């Protein structure tokens, strides 16, 4: 009967909820140990400029392998780390390890361009964030001009003086800012004129169907035009197919990141890619 079905549906639903809540508790406690157990690694994904045919930079993406939970996606564990506050410690680790890797590559003459590090809203809003970045830069010796911080619109939605001061202070050191997942947030665009932003990252959701969905192509074109008019660079993320890149090129976008140009790679693989790139650059 419908009543029974309803009950079953409810039981199924609540079992799912319980399982999900249980899973979250497991992830929370496992996350607490992850750093000390060396379960985190960084992956690096190329960002390229097809106009100059060069590496613009690498986005730094955190990876977590747990012995029993397996590989947990950052899309799952980052929001949880934000809720529990663990993101402060994890975010510091990511920044530090990225700068250490970048220094090694600079010493080896590997042409990686910039390192783009994702920063969560609660991380950026922490009172000591600017000090933290300065400290990591000073301790590692990584050049600030090679560091880009990727912020989402959720950071910029509260455009307080303190937030703007923090950004200006970092910008004063040479640090750059990109707005991640641009076009998917709920904030007004007024922050674009108040904040020192260098680059918009056009969200993958507008790229996926750019050749079949008129609205997506129109939005992508508007973002590229907005960037050009405001003197901001625009990079499109999540490019998987050549026809997506060519549609974006027709709209005036030349900066790309996506599986078509390179997967996120662990250190040894990205170093091999960078070595090849160095050879290509010095070849006659
Ligand atoms: P994001 O910053 O927008 O990063 C881009 C995501 O898209 C990455 O997922 C990347 O692996 C994926 N991606 C890149 N190119 C393609 C493509 O062509 N096709 C498809 N299908 N996917 C592509 P990932 O690594 O799973 O990270 C998910 C999100 O987790 C990131 O989105 C970012 O918001 C967050 N995240 C990752 N690492 C960190 C970190 O160190 N700190 C913080 N705060 N957040 C991080
Ligand atoms: Mg990002
Ligand atoms: Mg993104
Ligand atoms: Mg995204």
Secondary structure blueprint with pairings:
Layout: H1 2-34, E1 40-49, E2 54-66, E3 70-72, H2 74-84, H3 87-107, E4 114-118, H4 121-125, H5 129-140, E5 147-151, H6 153-156, H7 161-173, E6 176-182, H8 191-194, E7 199-202, H9 204-207, H10 214-230, E8 233-237, H11 242-250, E9 255-257, H12 267-282
Parallel strand pairs: 2-4, 4-5, 5-6, 6-7, 7-8, 8-9
Antiparallel strand pairs: 1-2, 1-9, 2-3
Helix pairs in contact: 1-2, 3-5, 5-7
Tell me about this structure.
The protein has 284 residues and is α/β, with parallel strands linked by helices. 52% of the residues lie in helices and 19% in strands. It is built from 12 helices and 9 strands. An 8-stranded mixed β-barrel has the order 1-2-4-5-6-7-8-9, surrounded by 4 helices. Helix 8 links the parallel strand 6 and strand 7. Helix 3 (87-107) packs parallel to helix 5 and helix 5 (129-140) packs parallel to helix 7. The mean pLDDT is 93. The chain binds ligand C2E and magnesium ion (3 copies). One magnesium ion binds next to loops. One magnesium ion binds at residues 181, 203-204, 237.
């Amino acid at each position: 009967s419908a009543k029974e079905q309803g009950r079953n549906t409810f039981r199924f639903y609540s079992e799912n909820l319980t399982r999900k809540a249980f899973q979250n508790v497991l992830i929370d406690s496992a996350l607490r140990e992850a750093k000390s157990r060396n379960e985190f690694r960084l992956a690096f994904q190329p960002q390229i400029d097809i106009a100059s045919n060069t590496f613009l930079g690498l986005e730094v993406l955190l990876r977590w392998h747990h012995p029993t939970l397996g590989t947990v996606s950052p899309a799952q564990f980052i929001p949880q780390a934000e809720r529990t506050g663990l993101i402060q410690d994890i975010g510091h680790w990511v920044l530090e390890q990225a700068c250490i890797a970048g220094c090694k590559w600079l010493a080896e003459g590997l042409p990686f361009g910039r390192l783009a590090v994702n920063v969560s809203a609660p991380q950026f809003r922490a009172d000591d964030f600017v000090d933290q970045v300065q400290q990591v830069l000073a301790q590692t010796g990584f050049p600030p001009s090679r560091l880009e911080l990727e912020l989402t619109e959720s950071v910029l939605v509260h455009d307080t003086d303190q937030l703007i001061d923090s950004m200006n202070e970092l910008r004063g050191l040479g640090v750059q800012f990109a707005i991640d997942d641009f076009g998917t947030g709920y904030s007004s665009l007024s922050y674009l004129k108040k904040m020192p932003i260098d680059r918009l990252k056009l969200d993958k959701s507008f790229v996926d169907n750019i050749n079949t969905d008129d609205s997506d192509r129109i939005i992508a074109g508007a973002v590229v035009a907005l960037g050009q008019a405001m003197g901001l660079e625009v990079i499109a993320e999540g490019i998987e197919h050549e026809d997506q890149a060519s549609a974006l090129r027709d709209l005036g976008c030349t900066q790309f990141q996506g599986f078509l140009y390179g997967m996120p790679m662990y250190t040894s693989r990205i170093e091999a890619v960078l070595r090849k790139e160095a050879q290509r650059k010095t070849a006659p």
